[in-house]
Amino acid sequence: KMDDDDDIPQLSSHTLAALQEFYLEQQQREGMKTSQGFNQYSIGSIEEDWQLSQFWYSDETASCLAKEAVLAAGKGGRIACVSAPSVYQKLKEQDGEDFSVCILEYDRRFSVYGEEFIFYDYNHPLDLPENLLPHSFDVVIADPPYLSEECLQKTAETIKYLTKGKILLCTGAVMEEQAAKHLGVKMCKFIPKHSRNLANEFRCYVNYASGLD
Questions:
Q1: Looking at the whole model, is its pTM more than 0.85?
Q2: Which domain holds residue 196?
């Protein structure tokens, strides 16, 4: 009779050690988060999920875009972040400022943000809660998850529904013509950076006089 243990795949001691180290690091990170009165809004508090095509902006870019959004929204303004969670997190760091913000996002981990979180799937661009009134946001910042015309076109429906007029779009440089076609936005000089380098050149597009030139 065969030994029952034979068909259990054995991890090498090296792999096991690496795994243990990984888990230990993870625990330490979690521990640090709680011990430092962890800021749930800081970038990196929710890790990127590449399977959802998530790529966080660098801290500097997120700050710059958040600042632009606040200026564009004006005093007491409303800002919608569509698939742009790192900008949302930056906006939340400026608590007490005179604006309000919502995050429309497919990744339900962001539901930790409570009522400001709206589950959003670009495949159903107008499947939005009733209390999200049309043209109720002073500015909409959007970063469609995929570089495809279909994704841009559907996200554009959502943006046009939400915005009173101002649009700040972040997407690949290759999308310039489609962005103009679907949203009437033009490329800015400002070049957004990500915390990890992406293969595709990324750009910002606006349809108003912004501070990004």
A1: no
A2: 58-148+157-206
Residue 24 domain flag: no
What are phi and psi for residue 176, nearest 5 degrees? Answer: -55, -50
| 48 in a structural domain | no
Question: What is d(CA 181, CA 153) in angstroms, rounded to the nearest whole number?
Answer: 9
pLDDT of residue 142: 97
More confident residue, 24 or 31: 24
Sign of CA dihedral 160, 79, 43, 131: negative
The answer to whether residue 127 is domain-embedded is yes
Number of domains present in the structure of the chain: 1
CA gap 24, 117 in Å, rounded:
31
Looking up residue 70, the CATH number of its domain turns out to be: 3.40.50.150
Report CA dihedral (153, 116, 127, 57) to the nearest 10 degrees. Answer: 20
Rounded CA separation 150/165 (Å)? 22
Q: Note the pLDDT tens digit of each residue in 32-82.
A: 444 444 445 444 555 545 454 556 788 899 999 999 999 999 999 999 999
Residue 196 identity: R
